[in-house]
Structures are given as structure tokens and as C-alpha cells.
Design goal:
Shape: elongated
Bound molecules: zinc ion
Strand content: 15-25%
Length: 156
């Protein structure tokens, strides 16, 4: 009986169910709690709608090779979170909403490129654009990272 039930569950599950939103939820748990195994992660994701099961978590772990993700892997998980969110076209607002911090004003940290002179012609640089990212860290909680990029002032 149990076996048959599992088979039905398996058939219902497709990897398409592992959406960017699911990946992000799993990564957020791992960033907050480095080194958790699949079972602990799915336990912490109980009550999500649509539900995130052990199978979802397993697929995410396999896809991104997250087994043995200890504390040293927290930054990898962070980078992965950014790239998944960016590829999926998520705005920082959307990520904030997904992570349950909707409406909160996030602390902001600016990362300004250190390059003061153009590497090619040595002219001074000007700020070209900035890129906002919502970031969650184990130590700081959630904050907004603003990456300020620079370019050559004379467009050499
Ligand atoms: Zn230049």
C-alpha cells in the first residue's frame, strides 16, 4: 500500500515543479542555516504554498551540487541565489516578497568599483550604472546590495 502510494506521488512530481521560486527558497534556507541536509531543509519549508517537498529539495541539491554545503559554501549559495534570481528576471522587490520581508525597508550597502582611472587610457572614470541586489547573509540577515560600476570618462 505504502509503495503504491509513493509511486503515485512520484508520477505527480515533475522537475518543472522545481521553479526558480523553489530554488530560491531552498537556497535561502541554506544561507541562513549552512550545512543542512535535504530532510532538514524540506522540514523547514513545510507549509509553503504550493508545497515544497523532499523531492523538490533533492532536485535542487542535485542540480546545484549542494550536498556537503558547509559554512564555506554560504557565499556560493549566495552567488547562486543572485544568478538564479537574475536569470529568472526577478527584481529585488520580488525576491523580498518571496522571502517574506515585504514592506520592510532593507538596510543598504554600496559596493563601489575601486577603479579611479581607465585601464586603457588612464583618464578618470565616471559612474556608469548601479545594480541593485537583495542579499541575505547568515550574519546580517537581509540587506540591499548596490553595485556601483564605473566607466571611462572619455569613452576611449
Ligand atoms: Zn579610457
Amino acid at each position: 500500500m505504502t509503495k503504491r502510494h509513493e509511486m503515485i506521488e512520484d508520477r505527480k512530481f515533475t522537475t518543472e515543479a522545481v521553479t526558480d521560486a523553489v530554488v530560491i527558497q531552498v537556497l535561502l534556507i541554506l544561507i541562513r542555516h549552512p550545512g543542512l541536509r535535504t530532510g532538514d531543509v524540506s522540514h523547514r519549508l513545510k507549509g509553503q504554498s504550493p508545497p515544497i517537498t523532499m523531492q523538490h529539495v533533492r532536485v535542487v541539491f542535485d542540480r546545484y551540487n549542494l550536498d556537503d554545503a558547509g559554512e564555506k559554501k554560504t557565499f556560493e549559495a549566495l552567488n547562486l541565489l543572485w544568478s538564479v534570481a537574475e536569470q529568472g528576471g526577478w527584481s529585488s522587490t520580488e525576491i523580498a516578497r518571496a522571502t517574506g520581508s515585504n514592506g520592510c525597508h532593507l538596510p543598504r550597502i554600496d559596493f563601489i568599483a575601486e577603479m579611479d582611472n581607465c585601464a586603457v587610457c588612464r583618464a578618470t572614470t565616471v559612474i556608469s550604472r548601479s545594480k541593485n541586489r537583495t542579499v541575505v547573509t547568515y550574519a546580517e540577515g537581509m540587506f540591499e546590495a548596490v553595485e556601483v560600476q564605473k566607466k571611462c570618462s572619455v569613452d576611449c
